[in-house]
């Protein structure tokens, strides 16, 4: 399955609910995770908000450029994963109400 | 960067300087031509110039002794403190040390590498030294100019930019500093979080962290655990499969061995059967053989009996013949014995007549012989008597001669004894002289010891005097020390700290106050300012009262206004500290009788010096007492020495000591040894003389005795000689000649008689030979006859003996023959042959070894079969132990876990590689955003420049490389060359201060503001004091009043510096710290 950055974030959230945390019970008795088949949509795919600071916009552009210019799959995957990290950072930051994601 | 310490020696006009810098504003002041700019140049060279550069030659010490040396201690960041030491010149050197605490330094670089490392630490845009195209002389860069600008080019920073830098390190440092102040808060948060994620997995150099606690470590450990488990189960499954395979092999081997065992058993049984048949046949054959042998033996006995009977008959006949031969031999013997008797009778008859004649002749000859012997004897006796008499004469003569010699020897011995006795007396006299000299020497030694004992007694007396003097001095020092009351030295540090804190607290109150009193009606004003009473005024004019910290105004009887500087907290703090001062310090000051801590310190030092003096006196007293103790008993020694001297003089008696002076002098430097040697030599001489005297006396006595004995012997010899000569009246010689003639005649007569005897003997012998020949023939015949009888007798005896033996054997054979039964033996033989013929014949012959080998082979196969059975049981047990299919199932689980861990490790690696990439991209984006340094930096300078010039100028225009384009006035950009020199140096100073503030770096200002007026100078002073809390500023000036309050200056005396404003302002009097040539 191929998911976008936002969808992957949602997948993470669902899995976290199922798995449980230190503060919450898990929803299932046995959870077997196999994310081998889970793929990310390459690039940012315009999921980042428009009102980002310029320096962050520049960061996203640079990572998209790395994805586009990557010569091999690992390099492309690494840049896409970096975008995912940035997206989650912004999403977590949004939880404090400072960004609109 | 912050400078800690600077040490310079032999640098230009400076002989030496050693200063420690404070963390904030450091004002280093001194008169013109002191060497301030040389100190700045030393900092520049210490940080930038390689030691081997010829540029350093211009700073060779003016006196020409020693190479210029600069040592700078600085801190690049927290807990990274460096010390660079450079000695310029051909024999120069460079060393770089690093420390975490500022005390313990470790060497990190030396030689040419020092400058490369320094430039890496400073990051001022200066490349590593060396390489093609490297600039000669003192290297420079935009930041080096901005932070260490020389005095003669104050506006240099306005003319330079980053464009001219050889490396980008300066630009990168400035960009990083500017970014930190211009970043978006969201970006800063995300950057910090990304940095944290990245740092949790990678080192500063981008290498994976593998230490405990890192994400890679945990994943690697999990992977290792699962791998170990998988490998363990792999081994178990491998063992299980091996056990199964082994069990199958063993079962196959067992089946094969069973077949082999059956075949071997059958073969062994067949061989045993054949062997049994062969054994029975062999027994029957043996029985036949034994029967045949028994029959043969009986037949042989029969034959032997017949032969013995024939031999007995033959021997009987032989006995008869031997008896006849014996009889014949005996007859011949009788005949020979008769012939011998006849011959003997004839010989006897012939010998009896001749014997009588021979006897008569022999008696006559014997009579003649006796007469001749008597004549010889008489002649010989006469010769002996004459010879004896002659010998007595000779002996008497020899004795007389010996006696004369002995007399001569005796006289010589007497003379010798006299001489030796005289020598002995002389030697004994010399020995007595030695005794006298010894007494004199004892006196001399005793006198010397008396003198030494006297000197020791005098020294002991002097030591006692010295002991009393030192004790008195020590008591004086102790009284002075007891009069001083000071706290322990360790408490002084705390007091000084309190003094500093109090001064700081008071400084916080010293803010400056101005109170204006404008009376509406005439009133008496009593003003008290900073503790000082001022004049009392009474008019209607406004009164401006200006104070530092406290102003008190009494307004008639109406009111008293008390104004104090500083916040309430600062006042409370000052009050608390003053209370502490009163409580903790002032009692000590009062007790010590001083007004301040400096006085207390002097008193404390005085007390320490007194303590040192007391300790020194104690050591001196101890030493004197020890010396005096060593001299105890000196008086007793003197008395003993005096008594000894008197005793020695008494022993010498009446002999004057002066008469022995020559003897004493001849004893040499070591008189005792000399005397000992002289005495030993004298003793040897006495002993030798005494031995010689004894020997001479003995010799004389022996000679006397020998002389007496010889005289007696001589008298006896003379009497004997005279007695022996009496019979020879005619003389001894003639008597001797006559005796010898008679002797010769008697000898001739004896020879004639001997010849007659010989002739008679020859005749008797011839006759005897003839008779003996006749008797011998007869005796030979008798002997032959006797031999023939003996031979015949022997043959007869042998024949009779042989016959008896043969007859005995015949009787024994006849008894054996009678005892045997031939028919019975023949019957046994027939029965044995029949039994043998009845047995079966074996198919083939089998040996016992073959049967045994077949039995062993069968047994060995059986043993192997038992071993295989045991191995099968073991293999079954092992298979049960390792688990079999259960282990395989667990291996599958472990393999899945291992693959999962490996996948997880790859995911983690990808995750953190992505974090690392994200951080790099964010930093690059951030750097790109801040690439126009001029836009970021310009406003900071412009704001202060506007404030300084009261907004006369609007902005400062900087390029992206921080080059100064100009200043904006009324919308137009003007070159900085068009503004006044004073304003340009102020702009330059602002530019440099702003840059240093952003970088957090020390900055050196070498008389930068000489063209500024008082108001702008005052503004700069306030700015410098404010910024001194953020970074380090080093101001070199000949006008310290431009930068410091009078109170902040170093106090008079030898103190080099003083700190104010909580230690953020340090006034350094270079004229005290620096020594010129």
Features:
heterodimer, A: mainly alpha, two-stranded parallel sheet, 3 helices, 2 strands, about 55% helix, flat, B: about 1100 residues, alpha+beta, 7-stranded antiparallel β-sheet, 5-stranded mixed β-sheet, 21 strands
Structure in words:
The complex is a heterodimer of chains A (101) and B (1077). Chain A has helices spanning 5-19, 54-69, 73-95; strands at 2-3, 39-40. Chain A is mainly α. In chain A, helix 1 (5-19) crosses helix 3 (73-95). Chain A is flat, with a radius of gyration of 15 Å. Chain B is α+β, with helices and mostly antiparallel strands. Chain B is 68% helix and 11% strand.
Helicity range of chain B: 55-70%
Q: So what's the overall shape of chain B?
A: flat
Structural class of chain B: alpha+beta
Query: How are the strands of the largest sheet of chain B arranged?
Result: 7-6-5-4-1-2-21
Succession of helices and strands of chain A: EHEHH
Strand order in the sheet with the most strands of chain A: 1-2
**Ranges of chain B with pLDDT <50 over ≥5 residues?**
none
**Poorly predicted segments of chain A:** 97-101
| SS strand fraction of chain A | under 5%
Quaternary organisation of the protein chains:
heterodimer
The number of helical elements of chain B comes to: 21
Find the count of extended strands of chain B (DSSP E, 2+ residues).
21
Gross geometry of chain A: flat
Determine the mean pLDDT of chain A. Answer: 84
* Radius of gyration from the alpha-carbon trace of chain B, in angstroms: 77 Å
Proportion in β-strands of chain B: 5-15%
Termini of chain A, distance in Å? 24 Å
Question: Could you give the topology of this structure?
Answer:
The complex is a heterodimer of chains A (101) and B (1077).
Chain A: E1 2-3, H1 5-19, E2 39-40, H2 54-69, H3 73-95
Parallel strand pairs in A: 1-2
Chain B: E1 2-11, E2 14-20, E3 25-29, H1 36-48, E4 69-77, E5 80-87, E6 93-99, E7 106-110, H2 113-122, H3 142-147, H4 156-159, H5 169-182, H6 185-201, H7 215-482, H8 489-509, E8 513-517, E9 525-529, E10 532-537, E11 543-547, E12 550-555, E13 559-564, H9 568-592, H10 597-630, H11 634-652, H12 661-666, H13 671-725, H14 732-819, H15 822-838, H16 848-882, H17 885-929, H18 933-948, E14 955-958, E15 964-969, E16 972-974, H19 981-999, E17 1003-1006, H20 1014-1027, E18 1033-1037, E19 1057-1060, E20 1065-1069, H21 1070-1073, E21 1074-1076
Parallel strand pairs in B: 3-18, 3-20, 17-18
Antiparallel strand pairs in B: 1-2, 1-4, 2-21, 4-5, 5-6, 6-7, 8-11, 9-10, 9-12, 12-13, 14-15, 15-16, 19-20
Helix pairs in contact in B: 6-17, 7-10, 7-11, 7-13, 7-14, 7-15, 7-16, 7-17, 8-9, 9-10, 18-19
